[in-house]
Design brief:
275 residues; alpha+beta; 12% strand; 6 strands; 8 helices; disordered N terminus; elongated
Length: 275
């Protein structure tokens, strides 16, 4: 029985084996840098946040969600409309701080156009809130080298000295690097033109990601408690907040605790709908 051809066509190494080693080493080195940059952006997203205070509330965001919201003693008995406005204003400003930090980090890796796209992708009220806020410094923890250095290539060349280059090329499918992005969830078939095949896979993954973002944005979950109602979407964004009549007789600490519980319940339900 004839063995099936590998799923991805490969060129056998040319007569210049040293050049083949160098090319593989550079690919692996650049892959390492890409992985470091991806880890940096993931960390930047998790760390991005900010704290905003006004006379009614102090709100802290982290990783794109409200980490803490604390009402002040002015809230019990205050106008529900004014408190709603104060919460929405604080949320927009905190979200603007977080989004700007993500944009700055992304710009370091992907360039200013990517940073601009992130700033423009948020809701209008968040963009408006960002206009009078100072620019945020991107996280520096885990920031990788921007370029592949000669030391990387020399070290990887040394590791490759004992490798059968032809076997390595025949066994390695570069599309495996896309597995974490959902490559294996995309229907695909290899063709003779590997670059065109890879481009199609990347386009399909991008379309899947865009579709997921739209579905998450379309989710609306409202949870109603005795003192408040909270509305979120599939991304975890706070879409609306309102006090109910019972809030007038509760303390600031009680209102803070009930908001936290209601917000978490809304997030959990939105997450279930997303899956």
């Amino acid at each position: 029985m004839t063995a099936a051809p590998p799923p991805f066509p490969h060129q056998a190494p040319g007569p210049n084996e040293a050049e083949a080693y160098r090319m593989i080493a550079e690919l692996l080195a650049r892959t390492r840098v890409w992985e470091e940059q991806s880890a940096y952006l993931t960390g930047a997203l998790a760390e991005a946040g900010g704290t905003v205070s006004n006379p009614w509330v102090t709100l802290t965001m982290l990783g794109g969600r409200i980490q803490e919201l604390e009402f002040t003693d002015k809230v019990p008995g205050a106008s529900p409309v004014r408190v709603r406005e104060a919460v929405r204003e604080a949320y927009a400003r905190a979200a603007a701080l977080a989004n700007d930090a993500v944009a700055e980090a992304t710009g370091r890796v992907l360039g200013p156009e990517a940073a601009r796209a992130i700033r423009e992708s948020v809701a209008p009220e968040i963009r408006e809130a960002a206009e009078d806020l100072p620019a945020q410094d991107p996280p520096t923890t885990g920031w990788p080298a921007a370029e592949v250095g000669q030391a990387d290539l020399d070290r990887l060349d040394a590791l490759l000295d004992s490798i059968d280059t032809e076997a390595l090329i025949a066994a390695t499918d570069p599309r495996d690097y896309l597995a974490d992005l959902g490559y294996h969830e995309v229907p695909h078939a290899a063709s003779a033109d590997w670059q065109a095949d890879l481009d199609r896979e990347v386009a399909a993954i991008t379309a899947n990601a865009e579709g997921l973002a739209e579905r998450l944005g379309a989710i609306r979950v409202e949870r109603v408690a005795s003192t408040c109602a909270v509305t979120v979407n599939g991304h975890g964004a706070l879409l609306d907040f309102r006090l109910r009549p019972a809030a007038a007789s509760r303390s600031a600490a009680e209102l803070t605790a009930e908001f936290a519980a209601t917000y978490e319940q809304a997030l959990a339900e939105a997450s279930q709908q997303a899956h």
